[in-house]
Design brief:
The complex is a heterodimer of chains A (255) and B (164). Chain A has 255 residues and is mostly helical. Chain A has a single domain, classed as Ferritin, core subunit, four-helix bundle (Ferritin), CATH 1.20.1260. Helix content of chain A is 65%, strand content 0%. The two termini of chain A are 32 Å apart. Chain B is elongated. Chain B contains five helices and seven strands. Chain B is of the alpha/beta class and 164 residues long. In chain B, the strands form two sheets. A four-stranded mixed sheet of chain B has the order 4-7-6-5. In chain B, strands 1-2-3 form a three-stranded mixed sheet. Chain B folds into two domains: 73 residues, Fe-S cluster assembly (FSCA) (GMP Synthetase, Chain A, domain 3), CATH 3.30.300; 74 residues, no CATH class. Classes of the chains: A mainly alpha (255), B alpha/beta (164). Chains A and B meet through helix 2, helix 5, helix 6 and helix 9 of A and loops of B.
């Protein structure tokens, strides 16, 4: 296998892992949403993200060419194999505003990321990006509305979503993290420099945060990191234990 | 030998209803992208509406069954490019949705492509009484492709096929 192929596989797994783990977290809300409409909304968002993950896993398995299925990547890898950002694995089921803030901060990045990736010279990647960006745009609009509504809402909703923003902010540097895999793909025209998205991402986030009368925490000096190397927070293991239980317990089970 | 020509195969596929919105066919929905005949095999390209649409598998199964029953050998491929859009629906298809009770999608515009663009394109017309005195009650509905609205004139909730 060429070096470029190996890099492409790693790159696809990162995107798919981000979507899948985020989807699994959001799906925790199913049956627990604050109102029926939001319960349905979160199941829908989760479904979109799972669909995006499937597309990238399937492509990774085609590139690997060893007959692994999308299910293999989702259900038969351990936490050190997962390449998702630490932000998406943080538990959601504590505060609806936390979930919306997380969806918002990630979504703004994914919107810009997929917009670039639509220009990838890899046909499959650009196709999957063009598909994903439409869904992400809709998610960001929804989450952004909630950030404004809660931030500019009651004293309690304002205080709680500000707390969510403070808690999530140290995870935002990881959005722009890249390594030699990215560098190789950038050289080859298959991917783009994520660091160049930072200013635009900040502008997008600021626009809504300002509208929501919230403040970006300025005293954040420590930023979390580790996802692209498979080094995770303590939460991922528990998430995988639940998500992977059935296919590992009954390896022959099919849908 | 394949007994039908490409046009006849399109007609055949056009009889398969969308499993979630049976008022229109999967061809009218824009899910069937291409039909080719190569030797004894009928190759069909399909594309998902939304990435996670659970109905895609059902549509694929229906295409396969329809072609097998016609004595053909199907080969079905899922493609992602170009990304599915509601703009592929004809005016006739949109009218079928309206008659069925689902407000049809508007044309895709800049507002759909940027998350914070002013998204107020005016209210969606009620499919029952055509009033525009309606409100969006939820961006997400019973399927990935629909949103929920409410008509203040005839006091009916209704679904809209989201512009995508």
């Amino acid at each position: 296998m060429t070096e470029l192929n190996t890099a492409l596989i790693e790159y696809c797994l990162r995107i798919a892992d981000n979507s899948l783990i985020h989807a699994q977290r959001i799906a925790d809300w199913t049956g627990h949403g604050p109102i029926l409409e939001e319960d349905i909304a979160m199941s829908n968002v989760s479904l979109d993200l799972i669909g995006q993950a499937r597309g990238f896993y399937t492509y990774a398995s085609q590139l690997e060419g060893n007959g692994k299925s999308e299910d293999f990547y989702a259900f038969h890898r351990g936490e050190r194999d997962f390449r998702n950002r630490l932000m998406v694995e943080q538990p959601d089921l504590k505060d609806f505003g936390f979930t919306m803030m997380k969806l918002f901060l990630n979504g703004c990045f994914d919107y810009l990321f997929f917009r670039d990736l639509m220009k990838s010279n890899d046909e499959t990647i650009s196709g999957l990006a063009a598909k994903s960006i439409k869904e992400v745009t809709y998610h960001v609009r929804h989450a952004g509305d909630w950030v404004v509504r809660l931030g500019d809402g009651t004293e309690e909703s304002h205080q709680r979503i500000q707390k969510s923003l403070n808690e999530l902010w140290p995870f935002t540097n990881e959005l722009f993290e890249q390594n030699e895999v990215d560098e190789l793909l950038i050289q080859n025209g298959a991917a783009f420099n994520k660091k160049e998205l930072k200013a635009e991402w900040e502008a997008m986030v600021n626009e809504i945060i300002t509208k929501a009368t919230l403040k970006i925490p300025s005293d954040s000096t420590y930023f979390y990191s580790g996802g692209i190397n498979g080094v995770h927070s303590e939460h991922l293991g528990f998430l995988l234990a639940e998500m992977q239980y059935l296919p590992r317990m009954y390896p022959d089970a099919i849908w | 030998m394949v007994k039908l020509d490409v046009g006849e195969i399109w007609d055949l596929l056009n009889t398969i209803p969308d499993p979630e919105v049976p008022a229109i066919s999967i061809v009218e929905l824009g899910v069937v992208r291409d039909v080719r005949i190569s030797d004894n095999v009928v190759e069909v390209d399909i594309t998902p509406t939304y990435s996670g649409c659970p109905a895609l598998k059902n549509m694929e199964d229906q295409v396969r069954a329809k072609l097998l029953l016609a004595g053909l050998t199907p080969q079905i491929r899922t493609i992602f490019k170009p990304a599915w859009t509601t703009d592929w629906m004809s005016e006739g298809t949109k009218e079928k949705l309206r008659v069925y009770g689902i407000a049809p999608p508007e044309k895709v515009s800049f507002e759909n492509l940027h998350p914070f663009a002013n998204n107020d394109k005016g209210p969606v017309a009620c499919p029952f009484c055509r009033s525009v005195d309606t409100v969006l009650t939820s961006r997400f509905g019973s399927t990935a492709c629909k949103a929920l609205h409410f008509c203040n004139s005839c006091c009916q909730p209704f679904e809209q096929f989201k512009c995508h």
